[in-house]
Amino acid sequence: MRHHSKTCFGVAAIILPVVLTLTLRAQEQNSPDRPAQLRAEVRMILVPVTVVDRRGVAVNGLGQANFVVLDDKVPQNIVSFSSEDTPCSIGLVLDLSGSMRDRLKSAKEALTEFLVTANPEDEFSLFGVTTEPLVYAVGSVNKFTSDTAIIQNSIGRAPLGGSTALIDTIYAALNRMRAARNPRRALVIVSDGMDNHSRHSQQELVRLAVEADVEIYTIAIDAVRRENKTIQELEARRGLSYLEDLAGRTGGLHFVIQNRKEATVAGERIGLAIRNQYVIGYQPHNLDSSGKWHRVQVRLDRAQVQIYARSGYYAR
């Protein structure tokens, strides 16, 4: 199996939006009878980080002292650190379009293996990629459920067919994640990367993905013959690259698989990666509310590992 990452030893980009704001007012008053009020603002940035070894297996046992965080190249003081397995809200995006005819069993097995690793308090929502985005009624009014048996049954019965609105389906899934109950949120996408029926553009989806508080994990099913260069195969190659880019920008892992065995390994490793994350918190020195893009990097004091995290955040 080929496990792809844009990140090499020592550096990764990251970040989740501001999650904590504490405000005290500070203002000088003209009246001597009114005491002056002090204003201070503290904003906490939380950074979920996944560290894996050269086999793609999650690395556990690291501590706060092992990490360095930079915000726009400025070193930051880490004020909180956690490695606990907290519940996650997860959207599963399964490509059911016609181009998956010979690959659907592998795609379903990847998601089934992923569900084995679930935390009992996780919740799931299921989306199908067809001519139009398909949202399965798997739970309550917000379409999430913690019952993995319901999800597995829906995956098993999901039919093949239709055109491919992959970008529109991922777009819809990211919007649906706003209704999730857990602060930690992720999408797991299994697809061949082809798209021939979406109304949203790739650029629109990238913008939403970067702004959303959701990590995207991708399992790309590669059936393209290297020696051929037809238009369809070149489109497929670009689709696989796009899935990798989505994962890289949002801090998720990206796998390229070619058979059912590799599919189950990818599903398991993504599940374990979600279960074994480090969450680093810092209060940025240079944060404002201008909407400016902040590039964030994480460095680790050891070699032969890969770090996965988001590429940055917009100051709000």
CATH classification class of the largest domain: Alpha Beta
Query: What structural class results from the helix and strand content?
Result: alpha+beta
The Cα radius of gyration reads: 21 Å
Give the distance, in angstroms, between the N- and C-terminal Cα atoms: 40 Å
Give the total of beta strands. 17
Q: Give, in spatial order, the strands making up the sheet with the most strands.
A: 1-13-12-11-8-9-10
Strand portion, in percent? 25-35%
Molecular structure report:
This protein has 6 helices and 17 strands. It is globular, with a radius of gyration of 21 Å. The N terminus is likely disordered. The chain has 316 residues and is α+β, with helices and mostly antiparallel strands. The protein has a 7-stranded mixed beta sheet with strand order 1-13-12-11-8-9-10, sandwiched between helices. Strands 2, 5, 6, 15 and 17 form a 5-stranded antiparallel beta sheet that branches. The chain starts with a strand and ends with a strand. Helix 1 packs antiparallel against helix 2, helix 1 packs parallel to helix 6 and helix 4 runs parallel beside helix 5. A hairpin with a 4-residue loop joins strand 9 and strand 10. The relative contact order is 0.26.
State the main characteristics.
316 residues, alpha+beta, Rossmann fold, 2 domains, 7-stranded mixed β-sheet, 17 strands, 25% helix, globular, disordered N terminus
Would you kindly provide a brief summary of this structure?
The chain has 316 residues and is an alpha+beta fold. It has helices at residues 104-116, 148-157, 166-176, 202-211, 231-250, 260-275, and strands at 2-4, 12-13, 18-24, 40-53, 67-71, 74-75, 78-82, 88-95, 123-129, 134-135, 184-191, 215-221, 254-257, 278-282, 293-300, 305-308, 312-314.
